[in-house]
Amino acid sequence: MSDFKGKLFVFSAPSGSGKTTIVRHLLNNKKFNLEFSISATSRAPRGEEKDGVDYYFIDLKTFKNKIKSDEFLEWEEVYRDNFYGTLKSEVARIWAQKKHVIFDIDVAGGLRIKKKFPEETLSVFVKPPSVDELKIRLKKRKTESEEKINMRIAKASVELATAPQFDKIIKNYILEDALQEAEELVGNFIGLKEK
After folding, report:
1. pLDDT per residue over 5-54, tens digit each?
2. φ and ψ at 167, to 5 degrees?
3. CA 195, CA 192: separation in Å to the nearest integer?
């Protein structure tokens, strides 16, 4: 890893909570000097997804070999033979650019990163108004089947129970308020003084 040790910002939440919207907003704010951590996955690309932009697409055998050789900061088998993880080289790549790392990552992975880098990490849980609202948001996306939505909702109940383990909880009831709160949290953690 490089000499520069930046901050790590972990944003976790159930699908549909708005974490990706918040992360994109923060990335567009240049004063934070953030770079997105691209996750690795063993699944195939979907739609317009590009390797090295949306994910690092790695075949299952290679993914398992990288686990064996301890190349991941964290990883998880989300569904059978469907792995996701954060490569150590990804954090090294971003710190080499003298930037802070921002993660849009599942709850388990987020908590693992916090455990490995307790001082450098700010872990933020994005909480939706309710599970019902989550279901409405997922249906509005029109990207998944009813069965897949129900799987995500079932997982959401488990994920919501982990919220107290995070440093901060942002309630994403009104998006503008959530974005403002996220900016304040990131700015304070980096040590930016408001001008």
Report:
1. 899 999 999 988 999 999 999 999 999 999 999 999 999 998 899 999 99
2. -65, -40
3. 9
Report the first-to-last Cα separation within the chain, whole angstroms.
33
User: What residues does each domain of the chain span?
Assistant: 8-188
pLDDT digits (tens, 9 = 90+) for 119-156: 999 999 999 988 888 888 888 887 778 888 888 888 88
Q: Does domain 8-188 have CATH number 3.40.50.300?
A: yes
Strand partners, 122: 9
User: Within 10 Å of residue 165's Cβ, how many Cβ atoms?
Assistant: 13
